[in-house]
Amino acid sequence: MENINIGETRGVIRKIDELGRVTLPKEFRDTLELKEKDEVEIFLLKDGFYIRKIQKLDNYRMNLKQIKKQDG
């Protein structure tokens, strides 16, 4: 996994709902320009999670990896 740039740290507390979901604060979504239907990638770390927006180039790379796996 690439190095994580944590930038300016801002903490908020959110509750997990009955389906295991957490809502990202609007300020975070605005800062990262996340819109409805955008895809995010979630990494499990030792002591938490890292979430990042999927870029179109990332989707292209993931598709290439899937094709390579299928071709053996």
TrEMBL record:
Keywords: DNA-binding. It comes from the Bacteria. Residues 11-56 form the SpoVT-AbrB domain. Coiled coil: none annotated. GO terms for molecular function: DNA binding. SUPFAM superfamilies: AbrB/MazE/MraZ-like. InterPro entries: B_subtilis_Trans_State_Reg, SpoVT-AbrB_dom, SpoVT-AbrB_sf. PANTHER family: PTHR36432, TRANSITION STATE REGULATOR ABH-RELATED. NCBIfam families: lp_hng_hel_AbrB. This is AbrB/MazE/SpoVT family DNA-binding domain-containing protein. The lineage of its organism: Bacteria, Bacillati, Bacillota, Clostridia, Candidatus Merdicola.
